[in-house]
Amino acid sequence: MLKFLKGVVAGSGTGLKDLPYNIGDPYPSAWGSWSHFRGTSKDDGSPVSIFSLTGSNPQDGHLAAGRNGVKRLRTVRHPNILSFLHSTEVESFDGPSPKVIIYIVTEPVMPLSEKIKELGLEGTQRDEYYAWGLHQVAKAVSFLNNDCKLVHGNVCMSSVVVTQTLDWKLHAFDVLSEFDGANATATGPMLQYEWLVGLQYKPMELAKSDWAAIRKSPPWAIDSWGLGCLIYEIFSGTKLGNTEELRNTASIPKSLLPDYQRLLSSMPSRRLNTSKLIENSEYFQNKLVDTIHFMEILSLKDSVEKDTFFRKLPNLAEQLPRQIVLKKLLPLLASSLEFGSAAATALTALLKMGSWLSPEEFSLKVLPTVVKLFASNDRAVRVALLQHIDQYGESLSAQVVDEQVYPHVATGFADTSAFLRELTLKAMLILAPKLSQRTLSGSLLKYLSKLQVDEEPAIRTNTTILLGNIASYLNEGTRKRVLINAFTVRALRDTFSPARGAGVMALCATSSYYDMTEIATRILPNIVVLVIDPDSDVRSKAFQAVDQFLQIVKQYNEKSNAGDTADAGSLGISSMPGNASLLGWAMSSLTLKGKSSDQAPVATVNSVMPATIATSTSSPGLIETPSTASAHRVNSGTDFADQPMPPSPTSTDGWGEIENGIHEEQHSDKDGWDDIEPLDEPKPSPVLANIQAAQKRPVSQPVSQPKPQASTSLRAKSTVKVAKDEDDDLWGSIAAPPPKSASKPLNVKAAGAVDDDDDPWAAIAAPPPTTKAKPLSVGRGRGTKAAAPRLGAQRINRTYSTGM
């Protein structure tokens, strides 16, 4: 027979022509005269099992019994009975006499004896798995005996196979017959093919062919004996040699021993019904059986039972046999989640079980279910997916993220729940590297633009952190357009001090993306203001940032002076020592939680860190949920506590169309930062306004000019009270040198001259020319008086034409 099958496989390469399956390698054992082969479908390559029976004579009794087994297997359906797929009978002329071969194709299975050797279970885990397998076989036997009134006749280890999910299933139906106990006058054999059963597996009445006693016995009498033989074989680890070996009970578990003895009772009428064995036996009451049974009837459980079960399942799974968990529980759990019968808490157990798989198996068995769950409208499921995204996000392919995952995740940006908005924001830390440039620029940045003015301060802070983290994934044009605007115009002006600190750190961490002009004209002026911030942590970061950017500019200057202009513009964060990554911001300093309000006091990070630090498992670089924040007040002794705060980011700052137009402009190429002109002068903060006001005051005035009114007026308007002499000392060191050319006295004013303080452009006016002392008013409509030179730092980042 093996020679024939080998010839078939070798000759055609795909098996028999009329069999739509390929025949593979044989297993070393099978029931009776059958041979068991591995196989695959010719259509899709899915695995199957192929059983073959060969006979030299068409009237051979083995073939007749085989045909009976095929018919019974095709018609009897039960979860614990081998699933039938296909059968065929072919005649082959190999040698002097023809041969008849019967093929049965079933679901992929392995002989029980081979699977037990492969698993190698021991101790409690072995007993639990055996209990689950015997429970399944007992249900199949009970179904045949009690429901169908059929007698299997040959229950033993050889007639049990194991599926890929480690379920035990009953097969070998060649001897299967109807139980005709009601026919008292019948004298012939009830089991037509009982001669196929080995003598060691026959109860005494069957061995004696006492059909009258068999017909008077219960329908389960013969198969209960066979189940006892199966119990002996699996626990002893050997094949039953004779009936006397059944008396050796040393290997039988004590909890199962009473039922084992009742199954093998010498009196057929006293043998234990297999249905009673399932219901009453203490042996079947264990964690594995209870867990699998709960999963199989999950749809019948209420929500409270489900929630309680799935919360315990992660810890319970560690105590169960690992192979059973991965091959049995994991598919059940994935299926229940996919079809909605499992609660959202089941996702935790699914991912924990999935962590025990190899990366390839995880992608095949877990990821498809997770991806489908993103389309769920259940908010609890969405929250669970986002909370655990760090466990599976790296395994998602870029195409799946861009096409299937992100469109569903993005709905969380506009969710009414601040907690869900924050989780969605944190998830982008893992998903953003896998998004296409079209999605990054056309969709994600629009949402981040809106989140930077969110009502929750923690969300605004985390948005700044996220932008700093994903900056490397943006193209150069998008970085130029977005980063400085987002970090300076919004983050540095936020009323929430950790948000301002995050803006400073984001600028430092992305310094390699800015050229010297941007650093000198747009970044440093905005950071310098924060060195007098009311929050000490922000001030500390601002000083560090100023030092860092000044060092970059110095290095650029040194390289420019040395003539090395090729590398002069490439200086950035990499050249500066001691810069921590953005992922550590929230854990180190951005742990303050609370809601922003224009009237709410600003709390310093240092004052609240011990009380507000929390651990985040999904993203350690992001601040925790703002909804659980506690209020903290600023220390009354802080030097800058009486300083007014910068304007709120939620105020009108030229972003109105973005705040209200995310959904209306989905097809626009703008990303939310385009309406901020790169060179627009931002409105100065009150602290900076005080400095500018001081710059506009003249250093010295003639004695003849009255000062009390001006002094009184100035002090009434300014919160910084400094004496005249102190003003001279304060600004003298940075005052501009006097012009070298001869000119009229600075304090001489012609009639009709315009006051310098009323000229909005005077602060950035160019110094007077040195070639000729010519009044600035000539040709400019300002009268005949020359403009006084301005003291202090000169603004040189703009020029204007004569038409202004």
Describe the protein in words.
By secondary structure, the protein is of the alpha+beta class. It is built from 31 helices and ten strands. The strands form three sheets. The chain has a five-stranded antiparallel beta sheet, covered by helices on one side. The chain has a three-stranded antiparallel beta sheet with strand order 6-8-9. A hairpin with a 6-residue loop joins strand 4 and strand 5. Residues 1-15, 573-671, 675-682, 698-766 and 771-804 have low confidence and may be disordered. The chain is elongated, with a radius of gyration of 42 Å. Residues 698-709, 741-753, 761-775 have a biased composition (Low complexity). This is Protein kinase domain-containing protein. Residues 2-284 form the Protein kinase domain.
SSE blueprint:
Blueprint: H1 2-12, E1 21-26, E2 35-41, E3 47-55, H2 61-75, E4 84-92, E5 99-106, E6 109-111, H3 112-119, H4 123-147, E7 150-151, E8 160-163, E9 168-170, E10 177-178, H5 204-207, H6 211-216, H7 221-236, H8 257-263, H9 274-280, H10 287-296, H11 303-317, H12 322-338, H13 346-354, H14 359-365, H15 367-373, H16 379-387, H17 389-392, H18 398-409, H19 418-431, H20 437-451, H21 457-470, H22 476-490, H23 497-509, H24 516-528, H25 536-561, H26 585-588, H27 605-612, H28 656-659, H29 686-696, H30 708-717, H31 724-732
Antiparallel strand pairs: 1-2, 2-3, 3-5, 4-5, 6-8, 7-10, 8-9
